[in-house]
Amino acid sequence: MTDATHSIAGLQMAPAFGDVPGNLDGVEAAIQGRTFDLLVLPELFNTGYSFRDRDEAQSLAEPFPDGETTQRLLAWSAQTGGMIVAGYAERDGDRLFNAAAIVANGQPLGSYRKIHLFGFERECFDPGDGPFPVHEHKGLRVGTMICFDWIYPEAARVLALNGADVIAHPSNLVLPGWCQQAMLVRALENRVYTVTANRFGTEHREPRKALTFTGLSRIAGPDGKPLADAPEAGEAFVEAALETVRSRDKQAPSGNDLFAERRPEWYADL
């Protein structure tokens, strides 16, 4: 098995609601001078999270790839040569999606539209209408899901079955540490790396209740152990080295091949 090492990273931040130019400038300052093969930014990193209604989400949504946010992502990826996965609100005609723009080396690769919407997101966005994607860049295979997708193990599994070395996971987590713990299991059971880029801080916009985001952005390895952790609060750039020899080895210590020995004929109820 050929081995390659890649640098993977996530940025933890606290976007100001509605200040797209300011949030974009803040990310640009935070990544200035950094190099990476993959960078993950939080869910809705450019707008903030607590939309009052669908009309407000519509007013801050952008098309892919021509919107201001994707154009900035393309410029950053061209400067670094890396892949960036970043959450934003996508407008496609009359449809609205909680989405993640995926770009690499100055080129748009795709926009993943969140399949499992959380809480009031269902009032503002349409559910995702496409599969969980895997994109390759510089020999690194990157799968994408967004925030609450984590609670459905099928999401991470299908990305791994489709060859992902790492799962990019833009997030705005509010449940008390549930996801950060679960992502260790998602990494272990699929023998992949995961990069959960969360936000921190509190957002309160009437009539929505105040939401406190849990921070604790995390990179996990295929052995289910954390490789890099951010604190609960404060901006943080977490990074780690990914070895494809580990993410493509599905052997358990027992000698079982965890993917080759699956028995999907008995999973029909899924």
Structural account:
- Helices cover 23% and strands 30% of the residues.
- It is an alpha/beta fold and 270 residues long.
- The chain has one domain: Carbon-nitrogen hydrolase (Nitrilase/N-carbamoyl-D-aminoacid amidohydrolase), CATH 3.60.110.
- The strands form three sheets. Strands 5-4-3-2-1-14 form a six-stranded mixed beta sheet. Strands 6-7-8-9-12-13 form a six-stranded mixed beta sheet, covered by helices on one side.
- A hairpin with a 2-residue loop joins strand 4 and strand 5.
- Helix 5 packs parallel to helix 6.
- The longest helix has 13 residues, at 68-80.
- The chain starts with a strand and ends in a 23-residue tail after the last helix.
Task: Describe the structure using short key phrases.
alpha/beta; Nitrilase/N-carbamoyl-D-aminoacid amidohydrolase; 6-stranded mixed β-sheet; 7 helices; 30% strand
Topology:
Elements: E1 5-12, H1 20-31, E2 38-40, H2 54-60, H3 68-80, E3 83-92, E4 95-104, E5 107-113, H4 121-124, E6 134-137, E7 140-144, H5 153-161, E8 166-170, H6 178-190, E9 193-197, E10 200-203, E11 211-214, E12 218-220, E13 226-229, E14 236-243, H7 244-247
Parallel strand pairs: 1-2, 2-3, 7-8, 8-9
Antiparallel strand pairs: 1-14, 3-4, 4-5, 6-7, 9-12, 10-11, 12-13
Helix pairs in contact: 5-6
